[in-house]
Write a structure and sequence with these properties.
By secondary structure, the protein is an alpha+beta fold. It has 3 domains: 4-85, no CATH class; 113-206, no CATH class; 213-392, Sandwich (Jelly Rolls). Helices cover 21% and strands 26% of the residues. Strand 3 and strand 4 form a beta hairpin.
């Protein structure tokens, strides 16, 4: 079998002061997931020697004169892979002319194109996507596809700001869109309708009342949260974002970037420092504050895809989780209506055991330190979530 050096394999020293200390290999492998192995010089001398050489003078080709056993061992570690198993880069894209996901309701009607103006909240972001300070406190790689131009708006279909991409090869020049101004005549009818559906263009009569409508929606959700100790956020993300986020995580898993299982959670994919989760975690902070009527800041997020055998024992969350938000990102097989694997909430103790089913893109928000919650074992398929946690603005402890 032909093997090549995995260009994305990392070789790390467990003790920089001791060159004989075990090495750690982190290697994404398409079809196998993220491989993490520790290599000891005494146990694997040949593999250790190759990996140590990799740190000094990175290899481009499979080292010559390896025995079959040594090749197999380096392939097991993910350092050597068949060419077809080298993972491709995954970048987040949310194209205005791309697919959407709207399983629970028909897309909202849009106004006649002649009545449209550019959404006054539009912000042009260029090819780098959202600014670094918008992407969370942890410094992570920029996940936004730089082969696109990016813009953002607030609109009725989502309670958090929407971020869209567009390509000069398939879209008209949208960089000329000015807040509150009529759409340029160079934009044809199909694209005018597309921009209206996405909220990039809005009816002139509704161009300025978005803040009042958002505040009203937050008050309604906040009343429910304070009364019941939990609330369902039905439209946290627009349908373009839902489709794009699902595709992004499916590609991350297919390309081998996520670790599957560990000793504590053997049946799940897990990402603690995924930059898209951190980005949206930051975007939801203002929403969580508005609903809770309490200034909050982001503590930590993570992404999980559960597989059969996974469960969640009953528990309350720790001090970094004053407000907890569970967002249903995906479910396989495709559900008709809400996903079939509920989270059980106990806002008033075991006697108030509530099964909460979320549709894809919906979220359950609750007081994490107060409301016990759990899930029974998943018996089939796969179910994906963001878990987003927040603390009060004045919290001075660790945010991790």
């Amino acid at each position: 079998m032909d093997l090549v050096v995995n260009p994305l394999a990392e070789v790390l020293l467990s003790d920089p002061k001791d060159p004989s200390a075990p090495l750690t290999v982190r290697a994404p492998v398409r079809g196998r997931g993220l491989q993490i192995h520790h290599v000891d010089r005494a146990v694997d001398p040949a593999a250790f020697r190759v990996l140590l050489l990799q740190r000094v003078a990175p290899l481009r080709e499979c080292p010559p004169n390896l025995s079959a056993a040594d090749r197999d061992r380096l392939a097991e570690l993910g350092f050597l892979v068949p060419p077809e198993n080298v993972p491709r880069p995954v970048r987040y894209t949310c194209d205005l002319d791309g697919p959407t996901y709207a399983p629970h309701a028909a897309p909202p009607a849009v106004a006649a194109s002649a009545d449209l103006v550019v959404n006054p909240t539009i912000e042009h972001l260029g090819d780098a996507g959202p600014r670094r300070e918008c992407r969370g406190r942890v410094k992570l790689a920029n996940p936004f596809n730089r082969d696109r131009q990016w813009l953002s708006v607030e609109h009725d279909e989502a309670v958090v700001r929407s971020f869209f991409s567009w390509s000069a090869s398939t879209a008209p020049d949208l960089s000329a869109l000015e807040p509150g101004r009529p759409l340029p005549h160079t934009i044809d009818a199909a694209w005018r309708d597309r921009l209206a559906a996405a909220g990039v263009a809005v009816p002139k009569a509704r161009a300025t009342d978005r803040p009042a409508r958002r505040a009203s929606a937050a008050r309604v959700l906040g009343d429910q949260l304070r009364d019941r100790r939990y609330v369902i956020v039905p439209r946290g993300l627009d349908r373009w974002a839902v489709a794009s986020i699902r595709r992004y995580y499916r590609e991350l898993i297919d390309e081998g970037y996520l670790l599957f299982g560990d000793k504590d959670w053997p049946n799940r994919y897990f990402a603690r420092y995924d930059p898209i989760a951190h980005f949206f975690h930051e975007q939801w902070a203002a929403l969580a504050s508005d609903i809770a009527a309490d200034p909050l800041k982001a503590s930590f997020p993570f992404f999980v895809e559960y597989h059969p055998g996974s469960d969640l024992p009953a528990h309350t969350d720790r001090e970094q989780c004053v407000v907890s938000i569970s967002v249903q990102i995906d479910h396989v097989p495709e559900p008709v209506g809400p996903a079939p694997w509920p989270i059980y909430l106990q806002p008033g103790g075991p006697e108030t055991n509530l099964a909460v089913h979320l549709g894809i893109g919906e979220a359950a928000m609750f007081y994490g330190q107060e409301v016990r919650h759990y899930r029974d074992a998943l018996t089939a398929g796969a179910s994906s979530f963001w878990f987003l946690f927040y603390v009060r603005e004045g919290f001075e402890g660790s945010l991790d």
